Amino acid sequence: MDNGVGEIGAMGKIEERTGEKTAEEIAEKTGEKTAEEIAEKMEKKAEEIMEEKIAEKKGGGGFCMGACGCGGVTGNSGKNPSIVVKEEHEAGEFPEEKFEELGNFIDSLPSKEGALIQVLYKAQELFGYLPREVQLFVARKLGVPGAAVTGVVTFYSYFTTEKRGKHLISVCMGTACFVKGSEKLLARLKSILNIDCGQTTPDGMYTLEEVRCLGACGLAPVLTVDGKVYGNVREEDIGNIIDITEA
Fold this sequence. Notes:
- The chain has helices spanning about 5-20, 25-30, 35-60, 80-90, 95-110, 115-125, 130-140, 145-155, 175-180, 180-195, 240-245, and strands at about 60-65, 75, 165-170, 205-210, 225, 230.
- By secondary structure, the chain is α+β, with helices and mostly antiparallel strands.
- It has 3 domains: about 5-60; about 80-155, Arc Repressor Mutant, subunit A, CATH 1.10.10; about 165-245, Glutaredoxin (3-Layer(aba) Sandwich).
- The strands form 2 sheets. It has a 4-stranded mixed sheet, with helices on one face. Strands 1-2 form a two-stranded antiparallel ribbon.
- Helix 1 (about 5-20) crosses helix 3 (about 35-60), helix 5 (about 95-110) runs antiparallel to helix 6 (about 115-125) and helix 5 packs parallel to helix 7.
- The longest helix is centred in the first third of the chain and has 24 residues, at about 35-60.
- The protein is elongated, with a radius of gyration of 24 Å.
- The two termini are about 40 Å apart.
């Protein structure tokens, strides 16, 4: 999640507000003599502006841009980041046991370096999706910025930040499947379930999505229901597939 505030943007605001552009100008205006004093003042000013901008856009905390060393969480509450995360997930919809299980999994890894994707897979397996509070928990446990976690979650189509239904229907829209009519299958599913791609039925039973390729081009057109592959699917088969799923 991008709060619209970066380190460079914040420093630009400092220049805009104070007119100070170089270390020498700052020293001349403020009387700080050492590089450490100047850097400290500039960093403090940048953090103040970043906090203001985050508060304006979010009305509270948000994901860290990765420059302050807070471990991935920032906000205007003045609280320790780990406390913020703990309060958020305790007040959320997930039982504490799931966070404990995820935490134990992370602690059991031989190395946390380069383990982000592996941890996110485990997190989605436990929670079903990756909402903000889960991402923040992962960021804190791995010691990485929240922005880094969000970047991975939003880049890979496997991960989702939206709660999914009990059954996930994925329709392949790769070239082979598209040529053989997968678009019609998708339209039929939308009509029967009365939802669009990326949506979940009101009863929480089905989530519909389209995917680029399921790797079963020889069976085109293909769709999957909870990972089970259905090949050579015709429009008239859709109703039966849903009936089988509900049985």
